[in-house]
Design brief:
Elements lengths: L1 H10 L4 E2 L23 H8 L3 E11 L2 E13 L2 E12 L2 E14 L4 E12 L4 E8 L4 E6 L2 E6 L5 E2 L1 H13 L4 E7 L4 E8 L3 E5 L3 E12 L3 E6 L5 E8 L4 E11 L3
Parallel strand pairs: 10-11
Antiparallel strand pairs: 2-3, 2-17, 3-4, 4-5, 5-6, 6-7, 7-8, 8-9, 11-12, 12-14, 13-14, 14-15, 15-16, 16-17
Length: about 260
């Protein structure tokens, strides 16, 4: 049950993206062109203004019971982004609030989305204040949890927060990958996951009606199935947490985008 809260207010919550969860259509990264000539103050303000935003709202369920909500906003500036997530839920009868702000960018060296840093605050169940910074193309991290500092390293796969993990998942899905490996930076460990893309299926999802969904199964520290909708810009529509005792679900109820 401790794992459930970590996933629902971390992996599944936003990964939300997902959860995750930017991108090209996801990588519809609008690039800011910079001229060699002096930049006017008006042009500078325009370059610093948000180029586009994506807003997703989710309902949270535990074993079929509605226990909370989550909102997630991606603000894109060319090949960098800030993702903010906020959720309120009842976990084991305890009111729990989750906030996270993650900064990420596209690596021209390794050609992937990488977390630069993130700040996560959880009150109620498993309360903590976590700040993490990443270096060496995401292969090293410094994590501060309530004043306790730990360092982590990965030899080959980048370490990511849950939001960048969701964005990278979507990027790989758009590339047509059928299986891949990613690593999540948790509060007290790094968690490797394997992902397997399944055959498309059709579901009726309010308020959009019938949607074609691509399921992606995650195995590792937590077993989760993510459902992405090509008809909605490959957004994360649902994520199901397969727990031993409880089953978790987040379901999209509203989506708005100014990204092209």
């Amino acid at each position: 049950m401790m794992r459930l809260s970590a996933c629902m207010l971390g992996c599944v919550l936003a990964l939300t993206s997902v959860l995750a969860f930017a991108e090209d259509a996801l990588v519809d990264r609008a690039k800011v062109s910079v001229s060699a000539a002096p930049v006017s103050s008006q042009a500078l303000v325009k370059a610093l203004a948000p180029q586009c935003m994506r807003q997703s709202d989710y309902d949270i369920y535990l074993s079929g019971i509605h226990t909370g909500t989550m909102s997630r906003t991606e603000t894109w500036h060319g090949e960098t982004a800030v993702v903010t997530s906020h959720s309120k839920a009842s976990i084991l009868g305890i009111g729990t609030e989750y906030r996270q702000r993650a900064e990420l960018s596209w690596s021209t060296t390794t050609h992937e989305w990488l977390t630069d840093k993130f700040h996560q605050q959880v009150s109620g169940f498993r309360a903590r204040d976590l700040q993490a910074n990443f270096s060496a193309n995401g292969r090293e991290s410094r994590v501060n949890v309530d004043g306790d500092i730990e360092y982590y390293h990965s030899s080959s796969i980048a370490l990511r927060d849950v939001d960048t993990l969701a964005i990278q998942m979507r990027h790989l899905l758009l590339q047509g990958r059928q299986q891949f490996a990613l690593i999540r930076q948790a509060s007290d460990a790094i968690e490797p996951y394997q992902y397997y893309v399944q055959a498309k299926q059709t579901k009726t999802i309010a308020p959009w009606g019938n949607l074609s969904l691509i399921p992606v199964e995650q195995t590792g520290a937590e077993d989760v199935t993510y459902y992405f909708a090509p008809e909605l810009d490959y957004q994360l529509i649902q994520a199901r947490y397969h727990g031993i005792v409880l089953q978790g679900l987040i379901a999209l109820n509203h989506y708005h985008s100014t990204c092209q």
